[in-house]
Design brief:
375 residues; alpha/beta; Cytidine Deaminase, domain 2; Dihydrofolate Reductase, subunit A; 2 domains; nine-stranded mixed beta sheet; five-stranded mixed beta sheet; 12 helices; 14 strands
Length: 375
C-alpha cells in the first residue's frame, strides 16, 4: 500500500525529531510539520531539554499561515504547564484546523491533549504510524512505564565470537572506524556501565572522545569496591561523574578512598547479585537516566541478558579469528536452554566500517516476558 499524505508528513516529522537525540532526554524526541493546503509552512523539533516544544517552534515558523492548517506531530501534544506552556493551547491559538499525532503521550501529566483539542473544535487523528513512533521513542516509553533506563549492550568481537584472547588481551579487536562509532554512542547516553573485571583489566576512561552531546556518568558494578583509587576512572572522577555500585561485602575503607578520589559510592544491601543489579537499574531510573550503554565484560552482559534487561545491541564484528576454548565470548551467564528461546535483533541494521561489520538494533523479548520490545 503506497504511503498516504499523512504518512509522508509524519515521516518528515520523525526525521526532524531525530535532530534532538542526545539533547532532549529524559524528554521524548518530537518533530512537527505544519501544512496548509499542499504547502509545508512550518517545521520544528524539540531541540534541547527545557527548550520550546516541537509544535511551538513549527507554529512560530508558520506564523499566520497556520490558520486552517494541519499540524503533524510525532507525539500527542501536551496539555500541561511544565517547563514550557501547553502545546494544545498554542495549537488552538494558531487557528489550525486539524492535528495528526502518531502516538498518545504515555506520561500521565502530559497525556490527554487530543481530548482538549477535540473539545476546542479541531479534527484530531491519534495513532497514525503508532508503531514507528513507539520505536523512535522506545527509551522514553520504557522510562515512563518501568522507571528504568533503556539498556544498550555493546561489544566488539572476532569473527569466531571472542572478545579477548585466552590471556585476556582485547586491544584492539575492532578497527579505528568502529571505535569512533563507539565514542559517538558514548556521547549521547546518560550512563556507561562496566563490570569490576573490565574496569581492572582494561583501566578504561569510558569517556566520549571528542566530547559528545552529553557527559555520561561512568558506572562500575563493583560488589567489593575493588576499583583502584589510582585507576583512570577514579583519577578523572572530578571531571566526569563516576558511580561505583557496591554490595554489602564492600569494605568501608575502600569505599571511603573512592569517595575521597571523587567517586560516588552507591551501596545496595541485597545479598544476591541479580537483586543488586535490578536495584541499580531502579536507581538509574530514579535519576532519570534514559539510555545506559553497557560495555562489558561478559559476566555483566550475561547477567543482564539472563535477567531480560538488555533492550538493544550494538555489536562490532572484526574479520579476524582468535580461537581457543578458553577465549571468552561477549555474554557469559546461563544463557537460554533451547533455540526457541534464543533472542533475535529486530529491525536489524548492518553497516561496514572499514572492514568491520557493525550490527545494531533492538532485541526481542523472550516469550515469557510478553512478546517483543517496541522496535
Amino acid at each position: 500500500m503506497p504511503p498516504t499524505p499523512d504518512d509522508q508528513m509524519l515521516r518528515l516529522a520523525f526525521m526532524l525529531a531525530e535532530k534532538g537525540r542526545g539533547l532532549v532526554e529524559p524528554n521524548p524526541l518530537v518533530g512537527c510539520v505544519v501544512v496548509h493546503g499542499d504547502e509545508i509552512v512550518g517545521e520544528g523539533w524539540h531541540a534541547f531539554f527545557g527548550g520550546p516544544h516541537a509544535e511551538v517552534v513549527a507554529l512560530k515558523n508558520a506564523g499566520a499561515r497556520a490558520a486552517g492548517a494541519t499540524v503533524y506531530v510525532t507525539l500527542e501534544p501536551c496539555r500541561h504547564q511544565g517547563k514550557t506552556p501547553p502545546c494544545t493551547q498554542a495549537i488552538i491559538d494558531s487557528g489550525a484546523a486539524r492535528v495528526v499525532a502518531a502516538v498518545a503521550d504515555p506520561c500521565q501529566t502530559a497525556a490527554g491533549g487530543a481530548v482538549v483539542l477535540r473539545q476546542a473544535g479541531l479534527d484530531v487523528e491519534l495513532g497514525v504510524m503508532e508503531q514507528e513512533a513507539k520505536r523512535q521513542n522506545a527509551p522514553f516509553f520504557k522510562l515512563i512505564a518501568h522507571h528504568r533506563p533503556w539498556v544498550i549492550a555493546k561489544w566488539a568481537m572476532s569473527l569466531d565470537g571472542k572478545i579477548a584472547t585466552r590471556t585476556g588481551e582485547s586491544r584492539w579487536i575492532s578497527n579505528a572506524a568502529s571505535r569512533r562509532r563507539v565514542h559517538e554512542l558514548r556521547g549521547r547516553v546518560d550512563g556507561i556501565m562496566v563490570g569490576s573485571g573490565t574496569a581492572q583489566a582494561d583501566d578504561p576512561l569510558l569517556t566520549a572522545r571528542p566530547p559528545g552531546l552529553r557527559t555520561a556518568t561512568r558506572i562500575v558494578v563493583d560488589s567489593r569496591a575493588s576499583l583502584s583509587p589510582q585507576s583512570r576512572l577514579a583519577a578523572t572522577a572530578r571531571e566526569a561523574p563516576v558511580l561505583v555500585a557496591v554490595g554489602p561485602a564492600a569494605e568501608q575503607e575502600k569505599c571511603r578512598k573512592l569517595e575521597q578520589a571523587g567517586c560516588e559510592v552507591w551501596r545496595c544491601g541485597a545479598a544476591e547479585q541479580s537483586d543488586r543489579l535490578a536495584a541499580l537499574l531502579d536507581e538509574l531510573g530514579r535519576r532519570k537516566m534514559t539510555n545506559v550503554l553497557v560495555e562489558g565484560g561478559g559476566s555483566l552482559l550475561g547477567s543482564l541478558f539472563d535477567q531480560n534487561e538488555i533492550d538493544e545491541v550494538h555489536a562490532f564484528i572484526a574479520p579476524r579469528i582468535i580461537g581457543g576454548a578458553e577465549a571468552i565470548g561477549p555474554l557469559a551467564g546461563r544463557g537460554v536452554e533451547a533455540m526457541n528461546f534464543a533472542r533475535h535483533i529486530t529491525d536489524v541494521a548492518w553497516e561496514q566500517l572499514d572492514g568491520d561489520l557493525y550490527l545494531h538494533g533492538p532485541i526481542s523479548r523472550p516469550p515469557e516476558a510478553g512478546g517483543e520490545t517496541p522496535g
